[in-house]
Write a structure and sequence with these properties.
The complex is a heterotrimer of chains A (391), B (142) and C (331). Chain A is of the alpha+beta class and 391 residues long. In chain A, 50% of the residues lie in helices and 12% in strands. Chain A starts with 6 loop residues before the first strand and ends with a helix. The chains are: A alpha+beta (391), B alpha+beta (142), C mainly alpha (331). Chains in contact: A-B, A-C, B-C. The B-C interface holds B 5, 8-9, 11-13, 15-16, 18-22, 24 and C 33, 36-41, 289-290, 292-294.
Chain lengths: 391, 142, 331
């Protein structure tokens, strides 16, 4: 009597639809996934250890490269954690600019998610339409900071340079174009399509209790019906003064995650409009002479500013000893930084709590017992970025 | 349901007749903003002398330790950089060196086509980075 | 007798050459049209508008290294592409490209042969194409190929049934299996009007037979890398591609013959051969358009659709055909 064994398939690190270098070891019984084991670590670069040898200021570009699709969010989380450790007040212009740019970054990240999600399911054209809108956003980032992907614009105490000329016009042009594109291009080709519906509805359901037990955050948690958004529950950067809603789903399947992210894009646009209307003038960097670089003009003319500049650039600043944790809501969930300082100019321990790492643990629960086609849709809706899973 | 399917088809057909926003590189190039973080350059004063004073701040602040230089004093007693080297292969183009320079000697240009056939070719020395003498009006290029 | 043989040989070369030429340029057309629908230009570097791209692709595939995996069953591995290509090319023989024409003073028909069981011949020969896929998937000794081969063979067999049943309606109306007679029976009204549901069913089943989106699970790029031809390279891969695109042309030709009136003109008087080609290319454009728009079905949904929706619909179509025939005056 021949015995049947389950087939072990390796959805390897290089695969057209595991987002990045994720290796999944699948045990298959025909088309059904019996057991799923993720294997990560292919993009590990030792960022947390590197942080122990760099000053607080030097670490900012490394945060860009962790969740490389939403780098301003990483910058924001790190800068706010260090500001919490140092107890620095950020000026109002910088706060509004930070909110504005972070929300634009959220839209850019969700656009990539939408494009690749459509590509995984098979709707190729959606990807290109999303990229066309994302180009407008990347142009805005490039005008501000000089780079499109690893933006490195926020500093401890505010933003690096003032917002450029023509910034308001660029953002207003984007706001004018985007809602109509969302309705005409993305929804008409994707949302009402019967094939998309049967591919995504009822797939990858996770219950409310399981979601909270596993520690999920971000759109995955909100799609299950839990209205938890750090921007509302522990507001930071002045989010309590903006008027926006939390997008929640009902069932917790892939279609709900899609709807939650689309609604998040609309709410982000709402916040951007409000932020742009209330952008105040004034300083863009806090005035603390020990932490924030003085203006170039002052450095070239005043002696005191020159001395502070030299000290900050070469040695950095020494925060008080202690530990601090701060988290923000990135497009993928709760991103937290935990810094232990021993009083010197380099952190003693710098820990980065990536949302995708915690979300990825729920993959086994969502996909076991389902078909391979479902697995692809589930990974697509999970939106992992391996840069932050592996750090 | 049929309506949704037909709408999807109409969206793709509509896009067939729209303007394509592909940039035909290398015949066309994109315009970058003046703040674009590309290749570095070392500036000069109006009279042609180098602005760099060899203060080592750029080397100290670089997160990937890709700048090396040696300061010296010239015959007038003024400090300058005897040799200055940036390893473009290690550089992460973060712009911290530009922010750190107290005399605005270091700048970043919108030039980004720096590929090379050898690793040594990516080590840019002072002669590659210095802006030409003020008579000529072009930005320093390799 | 000799004249007959010479005419047949010339026709063979001309038709085969024309189909091969059209097929290579349909690969380019697909890439360009997909590109335009995705707001990008498609291939435009090799020659103006990318016109030399298929030639460049052919040369590239020809010159690539031929790899046979170590564990593969060699004989089966090598035969499989041929088993996919030969049925595809055999069906070209009965596709009626045009009526009897006068060329150089001789009356020649623009098709290879008018077999009086033409439709049956087409279905039986194209069913053999499944063997190529199954053998390719099995012989590659790779789990991805195996999955792709299994899925594809199950899919093709299921949708062949609906295709066959959908065509029975046309058969009843034209009272003949010969392709040329079916076209001649559409002199008044094209069969798409009385047999509209049959047309829809046939087009859907045909897209599934061709393994194109939204039924392209066997070669679902985002799922199984490349499905059953993951392990193939160079000419064997080229043969699979050839088989797929020749199938596209043949299937479009069949749709044109059965439902769109073959070479009958539509208001504008043009040579019948030209009309046939226009209709064929319109069907090909429709298939490319569908590929650009719709996502792909999951495997079990595909099978459910084929067996539980399409097959009953095609049987219902057969039941209702006499009613349509009465309405349109065929009975």
């Amino acid at each position: 009597m021949a015995e049947t064994k389950n087939m072990i398939l390796n959805m390897g690190p290089q695969h057209p639809s595991t987002h990045g270098v994720l290796r999944l070891i699948l045990e298959l019984d025909g088309e059904t996934v019996v057991k799923l084991t993720p294997d990560i670590g292919y993009l590990h670069r030792g960022v947390e250890k590197l942080g122990e040898n760099l000053t607080y200021h030097q670490f900012i570009p490394l945060t860009d490269r962790e969740d490389y699709l939403a780098s301003l969010s990483n910058n924001l989380a790190y800068c706010m954690t260090v500001e919490k450790l140092l107890d620095i007040e950020v000026p109002p212009r910088a706060m509004v600019a930070r909110v504005l740019l972070t929300e634009l970054q959220r839209i850019a990240s969700h656009l990539i998610w939408l494009g690749t999600f459509g590509l995984d399911i098979g709707a190729m054209s959606l990807f290109f339409y999303c990229m066309r809108e994302r180009e407008l956003l990347l142009d805005i980032f490039e005008a501000c900071a000089g780079s499109r992907l690893t933006i490195n614009y926020f500093r401890i105490g505010g933003i690096a340079k003032d917002l450029p000329e023509g910034f308001e016009k660029q953002v207003r042009d984007f706001i004018a174009v985007f809602p109509e594109r969302m309705k005409n291009d993305y929804e008409r080709i994707f949302q009402d399509n019967k094939i998309v519906r049967i591919r995504t509805e009822g797939v990858g359901i996770i219950s409310k209790k399981d979601a909270v037990d596993l520690g999920l955050s971000g759109p995955l948690l909100r799609a299950c019906g839990v209205p938890w958004d750090i921007r509302k529950s522990n507001p930071y950067c002045g989010y309590e003064t903006y008027d926006f809603d939390i997008a929640t789903g009902k069932v917790g399947d892939v279609f709900d995650r899609y709807m939650v992210r689309m609604e998040e894009m609309r709410q982000s646009l709402k916040i951007v409009r409000q932020a742009l209307d209330r952008l105040p003038g004034g300083a863009f960097l806090a005035d603390d002479p020990k932490v924030c670089l003085p203006a170039k003009q002052k450095v070239m003319t005043e002696m005191e500013a020159l001395i502070h500049h030299f000290k900050i650039v070469s040695e950095g600043f020494e925060p008080p000893a202690g530990e601090v944790y701060h988290s923000i809501e990135t497009p993928r969930g709760e991103l937290g930084f935990y810094i232990v300082s021993d009083g010197s100019n380099k952190p003693y321990r710098l820990r980065f709590r990536p949302p995708s790492f915690v979300n990825l643990e729920s993959l086994a629960k969502m996909a076991e017992g389902k078909l391979i086609g479902d697995l692809i849709a589930i990974i697509g809706a999970l939106d992992p970025v391996m840069g932050e899973v592996d750090r | 349901m049929i309506k949704a399917l037909a709408e999807g088809l109409s969206v793709t057909l509509k896009h067939m007749f729209k303007k394509r926003n592909t940039v035909q590189y290398p015949e066309q190039r994109r315009e970058y903003s003046p703040r674009f973080r590309g290749r570095h350059k070392l500036n000069r004063h109006e009279d042609g002398s180098e602005k760099c004073v060899g203060c080592y701040l750029c080397a100290v602040v670089c997160p990937s330790k890709c700048i090396e230089l040696q300061a010296a004093e010239n015959e007038n007693g003024k400090r300058y950089a005897e040799w200055y080297e940036i390893q473009m292969g290690r550089c992460i183009f973060c712009g911290f060196c530009v922010e750190a320079c107290p005399v605005e000697a270091l700048d970043m240009t919108p030039f980004y086509e720096m590929s090379c056939y050898s690793r040594e070719g990516l080590i840019y020395e002072k002669k590659d980075l210095l802006v030409p003498m003020p008579e000529k009006k072009e930005v320093g290029s390799k | 007798m000799t004249e007959f043989i010479i005419i047949m040989l010339v026709k063979m070369i001309v038709i085969f050459g024309a189909v091969m030429g059209t097929m290579t340029y349909i690969t380019l057309a697909e890439r360009k049209i997909l590109g335009y629908m995705q707001i990008r230009p498609g291939p435009n570097r090799v020659g103006p508008w990318g016109l030399l791209q298929p030639i460049a692709d052919g040369i590239k595939l020809f010159l690539k290294e031929d790899i046979i995996p170590d564990h593969a069953s060699k004989a089966v591995f090598v035969i499989a592409p041929a088993m996919a290509l030969i049925p595809a090319v055999m069906t070209i023989a009965v596709v009626p490209f045009g009526p009897e024409m006068t060329v150089f003073g001789r009356k020649v028909t623009a098709y290879m042969a008018d077999v009086n069981i033409g439709l049956l011949y087409i279905f039986s020969v194209s069913s053999m194409g499944v063997y190529g896929i199954v053998l390719a998937g099995w012989a590659s000794e790779s789990k991805y190929s195996l999955l792709g081969g299994l899925r594809s063979s199950a899919q093709m067999i299921s949708y062949e049934l609906s295709m066959g049943f959908a065509v029975v309606g046309v058969l009843m109306m034209s009272q003949s299996l010969s392709m040329v007679k079916i076209i001649e029976a559409q002199k008044g009204v094209w069969f798409i009007i009385p047999q509209f549901f049959g047309f829809v069913i046939y087009i859907i089943a045909a897209i599934a037979e061709l393994n194109r989106t939204p039924f392209d699970l066997p070669e679902g790029e985002s799922e199984l890398v490349s499905g059953y031809f993951t392990e193939y390279s160079s000419m064997k891969y080229a043969m699979f591609m050839l088989a797929e695109y020749i199938n596209i042309i043949t299937v479009s030709g069949i749709v044109t013959t059965l439902y769109l009136g073959g070479w009958h003109s539509f208001f504008i008087p043009l040579p019948p051969l030209v009309w046939f080609m226009i209709k064929l290319l319109a069907v090909v454009f429709f298939m490319i358009w569908v590929r650009a728009t719709y996502p792909r079905f999951r495997y079990d949904q595909l099978m459910t659709f084929g067996w539980k929706v399409l097959l009953p619909a095609s049987i219902l179509n057969i039941l209702f055909t006499p009613l349509f025939m009465k309405i349109f005056g065929y009975l």
